[in-house]
């Protein structure tokens, strides 16, 4: 017989994004190990990795949010050990996310509880526990250097650079094509 179900989700559970990434990594590692006979230790469960996590991933930030604004807001929940702003891989400009590392796991949980879902620069920010920042993760993973979600966005979002990158490129190509057609038509008229 099971005990009573709780209606409140625990904050120290991994997000769906984290679980999908770790499951994908496990499948790839399993495929690589199938050819080898050596037995390795079982991989650590994603929930176990986050039990003592002190780092938070903060998403949906405006491109214009400064490091000082983030530090001021997130220091209300505890002393910040390190703050790493997410950057566009090519232009090295902010691209809408950051990592906030606290000294204790409880401070990170408090931050998720009290600050996650609040507004910063007129945007609702989201927070997730992160297993820890490693060098290279501060850069966007999109083809154009920023975040993937900003490449395919179809609506106008001033806080995240206007239109999505794919739409911007498509419009630029259309303008170039129109300019070439105009030049061709002008050359024929002369």
Automatic annotation (TrEMBL):
Gene3D superfamilies: 3.30.70.330
Source taxon at top rank: Eukaryota
Main location: nucleus
Keywords from the UniProt entry: mRNA processing, mRNA splicing, Nucleus, RNA-binding
Annotated CDD domains: RRM_NCBP2
Any one of the GO BP annotations: mRNA cis splicing, via spliceosome
Record domain RRM: where: 54-132
UniProt GO molecular function: RNA cap binding
Presence of keyword Nucleus: yes
Full protein name: Nuclear cap-binding protein subunit 2
One CC-aspect GO term: nucleus
Localization (cell): Nucleus
Keyword Nucleotide-binding: no
SUPFAM superfamilies in alphabetical order: RNA-binding domain, RBD
Pfam families: RRM_1
Assigned protein family: Belongs to the RRM NCBP2 family.
Chain residue ranges for the region called Disordered: 19-47, 135-160
